[in-house]
């Protein structure tokens, strides 16, 4: 029986329900009681949380009670369509058809019917339904989009283009329509029209308002979303800003009669007590004030207070040890101060002692390797050049010649940092004295592309900053000149416009962007020797918000109370001398939320982003409002402070959700964070890449097995210019009993629950039936150069072929034999981890095996292991390369009678991913005198969890062996969402297929994937005709099961997978895109490529 045939039971009840709906169609509608309305509304809320099965149960109960209610039945159809278990699409279609039999004009039901048909690949049946909806409601952009998609698939491309244009006009933020229309324009020869559409498509890439059309709840349009019952509630108007000023009247904090010249104020939590402290630097004596409950008090005993001649200071955790550091530009050179328990200065750190000093500095992760680098401007040289010091994360720094080669050597006045092109890496913008701004686009791996912005830059500019005031996803450049004019430019296109003129004199002015009124949108603050002015940018005009007249010498916003938002601390010259003034938050503000991002998690043993969270982008959503900020320096004054981000919520009690874009390119979403509090948000060390994962039907459910094609990774960086070689095949032996036949077929699923793409060329199932007393494994492992390359061939041995050991010991001499005797998911603890780099041990692992009996001279010897590995990422390898910290896979040594250890195979490999076996042939390496070997030793520093180690003597296959290679009977590509991932003891990964979410913090690599539906011919032959799946996708495979073996025999299933995988790590080569497709050497792939072009028509990008 086919897989489709088995779906009948899944929707039999739905057919009966549809018939009931039809037969009761003439019955007068029963009045819905209050409890039913509440139940329906609760189910609608569950749909919004993607708890589709819980919602379906409620909707089904309500439909049984009120079968004449069309909204309830349509809600049920929508829940079925999104639950995505076998047969759900057909079941949803039947329910929708039942509604249409009674109410042919019910557009939501007709739309759901059209979507179900389209998802099932029946385009001819879907098209009339979608056209009816699109014609009846031209304002429905999603209906127009899916109608256009159906028209294009049936060859009616001119009509399709019109519908795509209709979708764009109805919703200018529907990105999918721009791309699809561009492809049709290009095909029609309209190159310029296609270019314009693609430019619009790219322009919307970073805009949080932009969205996609796809088969996921909330992305199919409003008619495919469950609806509430009862009277519609009027939308509440946005609350009005509270009455009052942004800041209270100035209060004196301290007299500062001995203030340094060229003063600079900075803030950081020096003693990690949760309160911001304040520092004053400049040419002269430094000052420090400790933050206390009611303000600040002098902290003269702090070691930084004893310094003088500090031109600029930056604060962060420079070495990721959990303690605050300070980097100081002084007349004596660059200084690094550790401000933890030791309070020590590290002026002699390699690379810092050679720096020429600086007048200003930025702390940033310029190369996205998880640590903070130093961008220095000016110094002892008179040309005001700049230097980028790379942090090697081993206590040393190096000046990057690659950076010096692309920047002008003179005239640097200010550096700004941001991701100006929304490609997840940090670009640099240098502002010169007279020249136009120079943009350095980050090409990663210490490469930048210099682009001069084509703007008429005001030659008399004073200060600049970057901010995304309108939450478009792309920052704008704001600058003030000495004529009190404020300017705005977009780094992407260089367009410059004058926003208006300030009341304030702006000679020697400074500029910063910060939300001060709590509405979630930053204001601009300009300060100079004439005072302070806060302004809102409204369109292309300025609105003054607050002003202070006074001779301001230095200024720093400081967050003292999370709910109130930032205060201003200012050094002001008054008649009686210099004074430190505090402008407390005023009453004219909404409450704020405070966020302190950090790359360190208490639950994680490693990290991928810097501890201080510098470079994190935050996208906050409350109600219909977006706010976009980041943790980079947005104050034009020299130096760099460190404090939590402060964002207003416009009167809302909590943020609906907040998206964190970490400096390693990883996304993370936090839900329902309350206003008025400080939220410390640590980066979750989630497994974003590993390779596709395998599920098997075990007789009751689909159960997670392991991952596949770790050996076939594309573009994995080992060190600059060196990438791992891809091996485009793997033979994987399923654990005993993990797959059970279901109605004569073995059912397997290869899914992508991570941020990567899988290219599957051929999949076959090998079935081995072994007589009693026989076992087998496979010649498989991740090969890293040592020893013979694996072949994937079966290795047979008898129970008597197991070679006993007299003991196994670790490097401390402890007996570990019992831990490695059984494959029981209780592995050997590999030891302490290197906290700097994922997947690396602090000290190498060593395991000695003492033989219980001598090897025979002619024995075919194998070392067999079971376990799993914690993979590093390309970024991790790049960071470790800088620090000179190598990753060493397992090596094998041998000790003969009366001799020392000698190497057999250096770095022969490791288990290639999640739980699996691996094998190493020994006979060739041990040589003719293998009978003299008394001990073997494994050593390496990868984070490998070894579960079992065995020595075996291989044999020829048994004469009674039954063996078959079975081609796939049916393959279906489906969108199923993300099985819930958990980490079991010893970091053993597990995925629960029964608990799936339609969304996760992942992105699709941009490109074309296999269309949903039948993909059998793509995975039948080895021809580079790939079935391509991405995040949230799966390919379900059915294989005919052979007749069961005789009683007492053992059946072994081996899955042969040919293909590749690629993740989206910032340093994976080509990780952002699906194309170009891999090419397998030695294949005649012309037919396969034609096949792939016909099937791989589903374009995806982004979230």
What does this protein look like?
The protein is of the alpha+beta class. The chain folds into five domains: 5-224, Alpha Horseshoe (Serine Threonine Protein Phosphatase 5, Tetratricopeptide repeat); 307-452, no CATH class; 596-682, no CATH class; 686-771 and 960-1103, no CATH class; 776-958, Jelly Rolls, CATH 2.60.120.260. Helices cover 17% and strands 37% of the residues. The protein is built from 15 helices and 64 strands. α1 packs parallel to α5. The longest helix is centred in the first third of the chain and has 16 residues, at 8-23. The two termini are 37 Å apart. 51% of the residues are buried. This is VCBS repeat-containing protein. It comes from Pseudomarimonas arenosa. It holds the Pfam family BTAD. TPR repeats lie at residues 141-174.
Q: Characterize the quaternary organization of these chains.
A: single chain
Distance between the termini: 37 Å
Q: Specify the biggest β-sheet.
A: 8 strands, antiparallel
What is the typical, i.e. mean, pLDDT? 88
